[in-house]
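Reminder to self: tokens first, then the designed residues, so the page reads top to bottom the way the pipeline ran.
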């Protein structure tokens, strides 16, 4: 009969399998290789700043709410793409530095 792993036994099984992996693989998989986390950070900052900017400029810009939402969405998209590129470059730089 197969031994069921639950709770504590499951975590020990995972740790023992992970400890058998070469250190380079464990280190490489721990980072943000696709840049998603950095893209999310950039997008959050862009959301705060663009929302604050358009809220502050509401009366002087004479834009409709839909125009403002479209512009904020555009800034979010640009910031997320920039964050992904920066995240990928940072990951590659750190990986290159740690392997030498």
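Designed residues (100 positions):
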């Amino acid at each position: 009969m197969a031994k069921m792993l639950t709770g504590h036994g499951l975590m020990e099984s995972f740790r023992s399998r992970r400890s058998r992996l070469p250190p380079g693989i464990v280190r490489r998989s721990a980072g943000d290789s696709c840049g998603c986390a950095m893209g999310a950070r950039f997008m959050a900052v862009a959301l705060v700043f663009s929302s604050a900017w358009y809220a502050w400029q509401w009366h002087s810009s004479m834009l409709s709410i839909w125009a403002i939402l479209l512009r904020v969405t555009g800034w979010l998209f640009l910031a997320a793409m920039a964050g992904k590129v920066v995240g990928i470059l940072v990951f590659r730089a750190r990986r290159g530095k740690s392997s030498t």
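Residues 65-99 form the longest helix (35 residues).
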